[in-house]
Design goal:
By secondary structure, the protein is an alpha+beta fold. Helices cover about 45% and strands about 15% of the residues.
């Protein structure tokens, strides 16, 4: 099975891990059914969230709510490892905590409101974030007496400080890398993926050749134009399935020609059928499985 880690439920309300990528890899556009916070400890790369792509570097923090399509874009000539701490917070757990302390959700609320998921912070601020996350990581690794309570306490403290940062600082907008054609193509696909269009049609819309579009997607994302469009449609399909839409009724609203085409694309991309995905996502207490890399 491939990429199944993103479909399964978390085994604990809070999980944190550290990943280091020494060489480039292509991670498909994907979603989670939990909150993910990525703290960049090292590296210089681009990142894709929905139709936004931007450069991230050491000290940046990405706040990714459930259901938001995302993936890193690692350069083919990586000069330094991409190192990050990933904090995962279960959706149900977070809803319970924020029901008691609504202001804890301030940072995520601003992300959703502004559709802005990247936070650039001064060195003193990201040093404090790093220290708080390391405390969470240490508790999860050592598992001493009352470690679960400490894990939750540190996470709540981290989110409280993050909310203050969003309240008092003006989060910087993602830096524009100057590639207006690529930006336009991403925005077009994001706005129109539920309709059916061809490479020829999008090329004519932007007044460029089909080979230019194909080459650009292969160069920037490491996948073909049609593969990216399919992943974008599948992300939408998974969100709809998780929200309660019947599996048989999802394909048309996501831009697939028929259910067979949707089924084949889903199984090829994720290694399971749409119904099996729904079953796995619905099972409470299922052990969380990670295959490959994330973030």
């Amino acid at each position: 099975m491939k990429n199944i880690y993103q479909e399964c439920r978390m085994s604990c309300p809070i999980e944190i891990h550290e990943d280091v990528s020494q060489a480039p890899f292509v991670l498909p556009l994907h979603i989670h059914n939990f909150y993910e916070l990525l703290f960049v400890c090292g590296g210089d790369l681009e990142y894709l969230l929905n139709d936004q792509h931007f450069r991230i570097q050491e000290g940046d923090l990405l706040l990714i709510p459930p259901g938001i399509g995302h993936r890193p874009i690692l350069p083919s000539d990586m000069k330094e490892p991409y190192t990050r701490l990933a904090l995962w917070i279960d959706l149900d757990f977070w809803n319970q905590i924020t029901a008691m302390f609504p202001d804890l959700d301030y940072a995520f609320a601003q992300c959703r409101k502004q559709e802005q998921y990247l936070l650039h912070t001064p060195s003193a601020t990201w040093s404090a974030f790093s220290s708080l996350l390391r405390n969470i990581y240490r508790e999860s690794q050592q598992k001493k007496l009352n470690w679960e309570a400490c894990l939750m306490a540190h996470t709540i403290s981290f989110m409280a400080h993050l909310g203050r940062t969003y309240y008092y600082l003006n989060p910087a907008l993602p830096e524009d890398d100057g590639d207006s054609l690529f930006d336009g193509l991403l925005s077009y696909v994001y706005a129109n993926y539920r309709s059916r269009f061809t490479l020829k049609e999008i090329s004519e819309h932007f007044l460029v050749s089909q080979s230019t579009v194909s080459h650009l997607f292969q160069k920037r994302l490491g996948i073909s134009f049609y593969r990216y469009v399919t992943q974008r449609r599948l992300v939408d399909a998974k969100n709809q399935i998780l929200s309660g839409v019947a599996v048989q009724g999802v394909w048309e609203s996501c831009g697939f020609s028929d259910y067979t085409a949707f089924y084949r694309a889903f199984r090829k991309e994720y290694g399971v059928s749409p119904r099996e995905f729904l079953k796995r996502s619905s099972e409470k207490g299922e052990a969380y499985v990670r295959e490959g890399k994330d973030g």
